[in-house]
Amino acid sequence: VEQLGDMFTKGLPRATFEYLRRKMMGW
To answer: Superkingdom of this entry's organism (predicted)?
Structure first.
């Protein structure tokens, strides 16, 4: 999970990462 999160942080803007993170934690 940490590797995936790190990849997202490096590959996507922080705003997009926050959005996806909230979406994943929401469901």
So the answer is: Eukaryota
Residue 5 structural domain? 1-27
Contacts of residue 21, defined as CB under 8 A and 6 or more positions apart, other chains included, come to 5
The count of residues in the chain is 27
Dump pLDDT digits (tens) for 1-27.
Answer: 577 667 666 666 778 878 888 888 876
Count of structural domains within the chain: 1
Give pTM, 2 decimals.
Answer: 0.39
